[in-house]
Amino acid sequence: LIRKHYMASETNSSSLPVSEFLLICFPNFQTWQHWLSLPLGLLFLLAMGANTILLITIRMEASLHEPMYYLLSLLSLLDIVLCLTVIPKVLAIFWFDSKSISFSACFLQMFIMNSFLTMESCTFMVMAYDRYVAICHPLRYPSIITGQFVARAAIFIVARNGLLTMPIPILSSRLRYCTRVIKNCICTNMSVSRLSCEDITFNQLYQFVTGWILLGSDLILIILSYSFILKAVLQIKVEGAIVKALSTCGSHFILILFFSTVLLVLVITNLARKRIPPDVPILLNILHHLIPPALNPIVYGVRTKEIKQGIQKLMIRL
């Protein structure tokens, strides 16, 4: 009854300024949210713990103070921020029924999700270039991939993706809203802008074009880098050199696969929205902020001998 009254009041007061939104997670499956919170909470702890350990290991171990591991540190930082931006609020909704989110917090969350997601994609692209130089131009690697290169790459990653994705929440925040009830666990641009009484065509078009330009260009450059790597590796005649060369970029390739697969599934489910229950894209969106961050440091920790040894030394110190 309270909810119906709230919804009715929202409809009658569409001209009033919006001060907060109401997040309704999984509208069709409200009863099993508490059960879902358990695996999500465990994945969140795994993601935060694994990335924190990886950052501390790279910071403490002098042998890991190299450009490749600096890029991996940047990836871990992005993962931590993404997790902290999305998952605590989702768990608060599940555990404490804390569905309200302020206007400013909603659009801040939207900005961080859009910008940091594309920053991760751009980081993978820079890491692919790092592997390309290491395998195709090994003698020039120390002069090309330097600490200065990593610093410039980090500035480029933050500036490019931050500036190009900033208009998305700005455009949404300027809309006039008919209702404040978001049928999602997080403030995605489409979930929020659909509540508007105004035309959102430009908003949708800007996100679509920007997303494909940023993510698409990164993916093309990653594919090109690995094509050159594969071509160079196949020309190596020394026995065992092919396996060794491929193993150096195997971890990176697995991380890209995790990131791209979850993102691709999410895009497909959103395109086939009418054929798929609305709760499925919501769940996939949450998992995209959990599965790659949880698996990225584990894959590198298991497959990279230097990181594995660094973690072992860190545990001995503790």
Automatic annotation (TrEMBL):
The chain crosses the membrane at residues 36-57, 69-95, 101-129, 212-234, 246-268, 280-302. InterPro entries: GPCR_Rhodpsn (IPR000276), GPCR_Rhodpsn_7TM (IPR017452), Olfact_rcpt (IPR000725), OR51/52/56-like (IPR050402). Keywords: G-protein coupled receptor, Membrane, Olfaction, Receptor, Sensory transduction, Transducer, Transmembrane, Transmembrane helix. It is a multi-pass membrane protein. One of its GO terms (cellular component) is plasma membrane. It holds the Pfam family 7tm_4. This is Olfactory receptor family 56 subfamily A member 5. The keyword Transferase does not apply. It comes from Cavia porcellus (Guinea pig). GO terms for molecular function: G protein-coupled receptor activity; olfactory receptor activity. It is found in: Membrane. It comes from the Eukaryota. Residues 50-300 form the G-protein coupled receptors family 1 profile domain. GO terms for biological process: cellular response to lipid.
